[in-house]
Structure formats: structure tokens, C-alpha cells
UniProtKB/TrEMBL annotation:
Residues of the active site: E209 (proton acceptor)
Binding site residues for Zn(2+) 1: H64, D175, D232
Protein's recorded name: Hydrolase
Coiled coil location: none
Pfam families in the record: Peptidase_M42
Family recorded in the similarity comment: Belongs to the peptidase M42 family.
One of the GO biological process terms: proteolysis
Length: 351
């Protein structure tokens, strides 16, 4: 695994609609081993392992490269900046956070600020009981001159850099830059381990998943895969007070192979079989509906695709300190690589 690349990817801000810099980084990394690297007009990034025959079966491995963030919606005469969230934030997280605002006027750098609200000493007893509302928060960039560098429509993220604590990775936006990283590393592993089959494999860093699975819709339509596997994060339930059934989902327990209506049974079974054959630890998650992941729309693209979903356990999702175990990431890479080396015709023979 190229952890230096992963760190650079996680440092790069990429809220939905503003993924360009992260996409450029992802494509540059892919050029080292992919047969073809390109982007589409929507902003999706694609790295392909080519097959010898144009009409070969196509497998799409998708991980979304966007993260949650915010967009500048107003600036008052005193230089205080107001914002709207991009994606699903818990407003309780915002007060007191340092942020980075990326300016279109000064694209080479970002402006630092902090999210302000009245101090607790000045809140009434009733106000202390109320849920924080985003409209009552603002970004303070210090000197008023700094606000002049900011325009409506500029974007930002919470100022939180990745850290490694042994096998544990803590960062903002692991949902789902870790998935975009994993599908690319899987493509590299397929080439390195010579697991290539007579199929064309497309690793895709999709965009705008956090606001409606949008990039997967356009990229899956363009690629038209026979098989599509999304890689995302899922809720770990191994922390105090977590609701869980049975053993729950554990960090370090291996990739989570999803089963349910959004998943083609033959793909689920083949992923489980692959894990067993290669001594890869895995967990099962049953989801009774369309998932909130790229797998949802890949399954419905064009005439449909045989669909799978592999999830990486994640604590504290949509917070600045999301947490994953890199051993789960490594096992997910191995699972995808070995799956793509299987006899795909045999997997789909009943369809």
C-alpha cells in the first residue's frame, strides 16, 4: 500500500462538487500502473486494466472521492463568513472547529478560520438546551482583510489532518476517500500479482456521492459494467453504547461483505468464497433495502449490473476524526484483487 499517497489524498480537500484537486492526485497515482487513465465531464476519475478483446466483460470497482464539507453562502460587512453544509453534518460538531476556506481568488492557498458562536456563559438556560443551528454559526477569519479573499461559492473543510496510530488511521473524510484509495490499490495488486483474467477492470473514483450518488450514476452508465462492486465505509459498532445485533461490526474484523436486495446473490457468494479461499477475514452485514452507497445506482444502471458492496468498518462517521483499521483496508484490497482473478463467466452462469 502506498501510504504516502493516501496521506496526500486525505490532506486534499474534496467536498462534493469540488473534487478536482483530489481527482488529479488520484489520476497521477494511477498512471504508474494502469493501462488507461482518464476523467469524464462530471469529474469521475477512471483507471482501466485493459482486456485483449474489446467485447470482454467489464468489472467496475467504485469508491467515492468526495467528502462532506461546506460552501460559503454569505459574507457580512464585518467580514464574518456564513456557510451551508455540503453533505450530512451533525451541527453539534461545528462550534469551535478550525476550518480551511479554499478561495477561487487565491487558489494556491487557503484561508484559515474558526467557527464561532456566543460563549456558553452568555447563553440563557433555554439556549443551552437547544440544538445548535447552522444559521446561528459563522466563520471568523480574524482580520477583515482575510474575508476579502473569500467569495460566495468558495468551499471549505474542517482543519483536521490525518494521523496514524499504529494500524489505526484517524482522519476527516475517510468516508470515502479510503474507498477511492482501496479500488486503485486493488487495480495495482491485480497487475502486480498477475491476477488478471480475460476481463477489463475499471477502478473509479466517483464524485458527489454525499449529495445523491451522482457520480456513480454517470460513470456506470458510461462504463456499462457487467459487474459493479462499490467500496465504502460502514458503521463499526464496537464502541461504548453502540446498538448492535449479534457480534456487530468490528474494526480489525476484516472487510464487511453486504447481503440484501441491493446485492446480486452470486456476487455476494463469490466474494465470501474468495475470502475463504484466501484466508481473508470478513464480516457480513444484512441490509434490507437499497443501500446509501454507489452500489445502489450501479445495480440500476442501463439494463442493470450484477452488484456487490464491500464496506470498511468506520468509527465516528461524518466527524472530523473518522477511524479505520488499515488491516481491514489491506484485506479489502486482497479480496477485490482475488475476486477479479476468478472465472467471471462461472460466477454469472445462472444469469
Amino acid at each position: 500500500m502506498n501510504r504516502c499517497f493516501l496521506k496526500r489524498l486525505l490532506e486534499t480537500a474534496s467536498p462534493s462538487g469540488y473534487e478536482r484537486n483530489a481527482a488529479l492526485l488520484w489520476k497521477e497515482e494511477a498512471k504508474g500502473f494502469a493501462d488507461l487513465v482518464y476523467g469524464d465531464i462530471h469529474g469521475n476519475s477512471i483507471a482501466r486494466k485493459s482486456a485483449k478483446c474489446y467485447f470482454s466483460t467489464r468489472i467496475m470497482l467504485a469508491g467515492h472521492i468526495d467528502e462532506i464539507g461546506f460552501i460559503v453562502s454569505a459574507i457580512d460587512e464585518n467580514g464574518f463568513v456564513y456557510f451551508e453544509p455540503i453533505g450530512g453534518f451533525d451541527p453539534q460538531i461545528f462550534p469551535g472547529q478550525r476550518v480551511r476556506v479554499y478561495s477561487r481568488v487565491f487558489p494556491s492557498n487557503f484561508i484559515k478560520g474558526c467557527i464561532g458562536r456566543p460563549p456558553v456563559h452568555l447563553l440563557s438556560n433555554e439556549e443551552k438546551k437547544q440544538v445548535v443551528k447552522i444559521e446561528n454559526l459563522w466563520i471568523d477569519v480574524g482580520e477583515k482583510e482575510n474575508a476579502k479573499k473569500i467569495s460566495l461559492g468558495d468551499y471549505g473543510v474542517i482543519d483536521y489532518s490525518p494521523e496514524s496510530w499504529g494500524d489505526i488511521l484517524v482522519a476527516r473524510g475517510l468516508d470515502d476517500r479510503i474507498g477511492a484509495f482501496t479500488v486503485l490499490e486493488s487495480l495495482k495488486a491485480i497487475k502486480k500479482e498477475k491476477l488478471e483474467n480475460a476481463v477489463a477492470i475499471y477502478a473509479v473514483a466517483t464524485v458527489q456521492e454525499e449529495i445523491g450518488l451522482r457520480g456513480a450514476i454517470t460513470s456506470a452508465y458510461n462504463i456499462n459494467p457487467k459487474i459493479g462492486i462499490a467500496v465504502d465505509v460502514t458503521f463499526a459498532s464496537d464502541y461504548p453504547g453502540a446498538k448492535k445485533h449479534g457480534a456487530g461490526i468490528k474494526m480489525g474484523g476484516g472487510p464487511v461483505i453486504v447481503i440484501g436486495p441491493n446485492i446480486t446473490p452470486a456476487i455476494h457468494d463469490a466474494l465470501v468464497e474468495t475470502a475463504k479461499e484466501n484466508n481473508i477475514p470478513y464480516q457480513i452485514e444484512a441490509i434490507s433495502r437499497g443501500t446509501g452507497t454507489d452500489a445502489n445506482v450501479i445495480q440500476l444502471s442501463r439494463a442493470g449490473a450484477a452488484t456487490g458492496l464491500i464496506s470498511i468498518p468506520n468509527r465516528y462517521m461524518h466527524s472530523p476524526c473518522e477511524m479505520v483499521d488499515m488491516r481491514d483496508v489491506q484485506h479489502t484490497i486482497a479480496l477485490l484483487a482475488h475476486f477479479c482473478g476468478k472465472n467471471i463467466g462461472e460466477i454469472l452462469k445462472s444469469y
